[in-house]
Design brief:
The chain is of the alpha/beta class. The chain is built from eight helices and eight strands; from the N terminus they run βαβαβββαβαβαβααα. A five-stranded mixed beta barrel has the order 3-7-6-4-8, surrounded by five helices. It comes from Pandoraea terrigena.
């Protein structure tokens, strides 16, 4: 049996978009992701790993809905160790999505919430965006000698801080907590305009992900599979 491509996401809505024929999806938060990914690989192995989903913008001017195809994934918890993504996979995605940005991604352990913190991480890393799963995907791929690529859509721009309600609406498993949002709004109703902007940005990111998922599927079936098989 041919080993699968494993696609990794951090949030349930990302996993729903990622699912489809020809791939196995692992959706987990970063504190359990490595073990969950190892468990998914245990039965049949994997041809390679793909980090797929959203990322927070770090580089000024990078807008919601912008695809970022990682050149390096920078493992910030491990002194910004750089994991080079599979060039053939990344180049195939970049050719298929000519508007995508080829840049570094920063892997972090917690959301980067404020504009000041985003600016500081950008100065430190030079990365265009940050997410909480790609560095773990890169670690596991490196440990197993597997090709990997990270393809992420910016969901919030570098210039904008997230309102408290946006974080209150996230459960520990990445799903949405509507009551948490309402409680936060009740405490501070003035954050409503910022929360509505977050919702608009998230809608743009979801639309970009749905379009990009079709492209990734084609590349997984052709160029990705060939590279992973050593052809």
């Amino acid at each position: 049996m041919t080993p699968p491509i494993i696609v990794v996401t951090g949030m349930p809505f990302e996993a729903r978009i990622a699912r489809g024929d020809g791939v196995v999806v692992v959706c987990a938060q970063n504190h359990t992701l490595a073990s969950d990914l190892e468990a998914a690989m245990a039965p049949d192995g994997a041809r390679g790993l793909v980090s797929f989903g959203t990322a927070g913008g770090l580089r000024p001017g990078v807008t919601p809905g912008q695809w970022v195809i990682a050149h390096n994934v920078l493992d910030m918890p491990q002194q910004a160790h750089a994991y080079l993504s599979c060039a053939a996979w990344a180049n195939a995605l970049r050719r298929a999505m000519p508007d995508a940005l080829r840049a570094d991604l920063a892997g972090v352990t917690a959301p980067v919430v404020t504009a000041d913190d985003k600016a500081a991480l950008w100065r430190e890393s030079g990365a265009a965006a940050a997410d909480m799963e790609s560095h773990i995907v890169a670690r596991v791929a490196h440990a197993h000698g597997l090709p990997f690529v990270a393809a992420r859509v910016v969901i919030d721009p570098a210039e904008r801080s997230l309102p408290p309600a946006a974080l209150a609406g996230l459960r520990s498993d990445g799903s949405t907590d509507i009551l948490g949002v309402l409680r936060s709004l009740a405490v501070n109703p003035r954050q409503l305009p910022a929360l509505l902007r977050v919702g608009k940005d998230a809608s743009r990111a979801r639309q970009a992900m749905r379009h990009g998922r079709r492209i990734v599927t084609l590349e997984l079936g052709d160029g990705f599979g060939a590279v992973a098989a050593g052809i």
